[in-house]
Amino acid sequence: MEMHAFGTLNYIVLLVYLTAVMLVGVYFAKRQKSVDDYFKAGGRIPGWAAGISVFATTLSSITFMSIPAKAYTGDWTFLIGQYVAILILPFVFLYYIPFFRKLNLTSAYEYLEKRFDVKMRLFASISFMLFHIGRVAIITYLTALALIPFVDINPLTIVFLIGVLCIVYTFMGGIEGVIWTDVIQGIMLSLAAVLIFIVICFNVDGGVTEVFSMSAEADKYFPKEQFAWSWTEGTIPVLVIGFLFASLQQFTASQDVVQRYIVTDSIEETKKALITNAKLVAVIPIFFFAVGSALYAYYTQNPGLLPGDFNTGGILPFFVISEMPAGVAGLIIAAIFAASQSSISSSLNSISACFTSDIYHRLGGETSPKKTMFVARSVIVVAGVFGVIASTYLIMSNESELWDAFNSLIGLMGGPMTGLFMLGVFVKRANANSALAGVVASVIAILWVRAATDLNFFFYGVIGTLMVVFVGYITAPLFKQNAVEDVNKSLIAQNS
């Protein structure tokens, strides 16, 4: 495939963006005077900014590129999942936001010790940290992999730019720097999607009307066969169930999102954050799918512009580099970097919050503010370096089929965590030992299903979550209550 020169102007635009991100970290570095500032922003974040940050955090660069590719080659069925995430928000408003705000925890997993015991806290926290180190590596790797065929930038340079710069501005600015860079990046992602769609429509004979009519004629929106039930394919009923539990995991048990609940100064601002996120989720993903439809129309009318052996997974960056004007292309590539960095920086800060609270402080580390800040920043560097090294290894070894395996592990690690929080909040008779039994049963069940069946990976999180709740409920009478569990019941009473 032809390599397109990135061009001086595109390099300048990309460099300006990367410099701006660094300056945000430098600006907020002077505000990081305590651990509360570093992990909670001292409650200074307005709700709208926290909401954009949640949106940017949950939208990675892979989503930015894969959604148009899905709409180009397939249909719009994955759009259903975005609206499922909106539907769970009343449930989160009613039960989880007041709960986390009242407890005012640095790490979400502190609750699991209060409700159950330290084993559950450590299990959930360590699972989260390991998962997100892997997430940093894989997002960085797949971003570089997607851009390699289209830009004359060495893949290791891409890894360096994404990984190292994330480490630096997250290290300096804490969660406040992360959130405000997320705001910049979220706006860039949204504007890039709208801009690309408009540009393509101007290049399609017949314009926007032709774009949507061609997709309708090809039955590329919500084909009838996608409404059928399937145990192995990602049809609409499977997507609804899978995204329901994936969204529950994100909004109720994942530190990188839950941490946004405590960076505002009131519960009203926290709710405003999720409403802002919901508004963005309701609108922006439509443009990503519309971009895919526009690309389908454009290349159907101009088939000679695509190389014969073209991998359609890279259709978006291919169009950007080959068809967009110089400077604008650099801005779009910067948006792809932005999508990657917003996810990675949130992962790094939340890993640091978990390690500092759940490992360092819990296991008896020195709690002086100076020492704690040193540990918090050191963890960001170590986690980031591990992610960069792992990304470099993946590039050098040319790993394949990594994304599906990664998605399947979300159920393995995220399902039990989600189940633990549901068990703690809604099953009053559950106790530490029944929770442990639920986690063990959950992990065994998911591993067996993954190894012995062809069940679609969207079901893994469902099985993981429900197994913890079910086994935790039925085994609770087998174990004796203790004094810690009496305190746990009082926490539930306060929340109800």
In short, what is this structure?
The chain crosses the membrane at residues 6-28, 48-67, 79-101, 122-150, 156-175, 187-208, 228-246, 280-299, 319-339, 374-396, 408-427, 434-451, 457-479. The protein is an all-alpha fold.
Mind explaining what this structure looks like?
The chain is an all-alpha fold. It folds into two domains: 8-399, Up-down Bundle (Sodium/glucose cotransporter), CATH 1.20.1730.10; 405-496, no CATH class. It has 20 helices and no strands. It has helices spanning 8-29, 35-40, 47-58, 61-73, 79-87, 89-103, 110-115, 118-147, 155-203, 207-217, 236-253, 255-258, 267-301, 315-323, 328-361, 369-397, 402-426, 432-452, 458-475, 483-495. The longest helix is centred in the middle third of the chain and has 49 residues, at 155-203. It starts with 7 loop residues before the first helix and ends with a helix. Residues 483-488 and 491-496 have low confidence and may be disordered. The chain crosses the membrane at residues 6-28, 48-67, 79-101, 122-150, 156-175, 187-208, 228-246, 280-299, 319-339, 374-396, 408-427, 434-451, 457-479.
